[in-house]
Amino acid sequence: MFAFQLLSALSSAALLVSAGPTLSSRACNTSTAVMDLPAGQTQLVSPTSAPLFVLLGVGIQNYTCSSTTSTYTSIGAVASLFDISCLEKSQFASVQTKAYTAWDSPAAGACASEIGSRVGAPKLLGFHYFVTSPSGTGISPKWDFTSTARVPTAYVIGAKTGDITAPTASATNVDWLELNGVQGALATKIFRVDTVNGQPPASCVAGSAPISVKYTAKYYLY
Fold first, then answer.
1. 186 belongs to a structural domain
2. Domain total for the chain?
3. Nearest-CA neighbor of 164 among 63, 42, 78?
């Protein structure tokens, strides 16, 4: 039910957006937006170029209970994506934590699309969700600006190339990821970093209903 409510909220928000960025536009200079990646790891490699977009993701991670292992398995995610490239440096570092606090409060309801305005990032650029993989097997993550940019190719479907556990509270915070763009013109590389929450409970009872876990994260698109 929660996932359905969030999807409805995201759809409503998309209809309210009358204008947005083109693929080549960015409101602020992103040349100083450098990811703070953990030292000593080789799975995530920061590009030398400036990111095209720096985004705050606010949404849910979805899981189903495996009957064979009695643990939760990911079945995708849904999130609203806000432009944070213009945030002041003093606000940028902690925006994902402040957004999660607002998102997790009882007053937040199911309106992920409203959280950006509460943390100084009111511009909704698009949405993140999962679709059938281009290979035809399984599902793949998609970052979609088509409802705001009004450009049919303003999306990217990604394929994971790197994965590390969150540097802090890894039992609570979902992994940090690097992905290559495999379809769409929005970006060629995507990173998910600075994650807050999103991990499921450690175990489940076979036959349990799917669950949704709130999370926030930063997404860098190159």
1. yes
2. 1
3. 42
Query: How high does pLDDT run on average in the chain?
Result: 88
pLDDT of residue 89: 86
Q: Are 63 and 73 in contact (CB under 8 A)?
A: yes
Q: 46 is written with which tokens? A: 């920061």
d(CA 109, CA 64): 22
Rounded CA separation 46/58 (Å): 23
User: How is residue 176 written in tokens?
Assistant: 């940090």
| d(C-alpha 178, C-alpha 46), whole Å | 9
The rounded distance, in Å, linking the Cα atoms of 21 and 24 is 8
- Whether the per-residue pLDDT at 1 is higher than 60: the answer is no
How many CB atoms sit inside 10 A of residue 85's CB?
21
User: Is residue 29 a part of any domain in this protein?
Assistant: no
> Which residues are within 8 A (CB) of 49 and not within 5 positions of it... i.e. 6 or more apart?
222
**Burial classification of residue 64, based on how many CB atoms lie within 10 Å of its CB (0-12 exposed, 13-18 middle, 19 or more buried):** middle
Would 118 be classed as within a structural domain? yes
Q: What confidence tier does 122 reach under pLDDT thresholds 50, 70, 90?
A: very high
pLDDT at 60 over 70: yes
Looking at residue 90, its amino acid is S
Residue 87 has pLDDT above 60, yes or no: yes
Q: Dig out the tokens for 136 from the structure.
A: 């035809």
Is residue 117 domain-resident? yes
Report which of 128, 125, 159, 160 is spatially closest to residue 23, judged by C-alpha positions: 125
Domain range for residue 196?
2-14+51-221
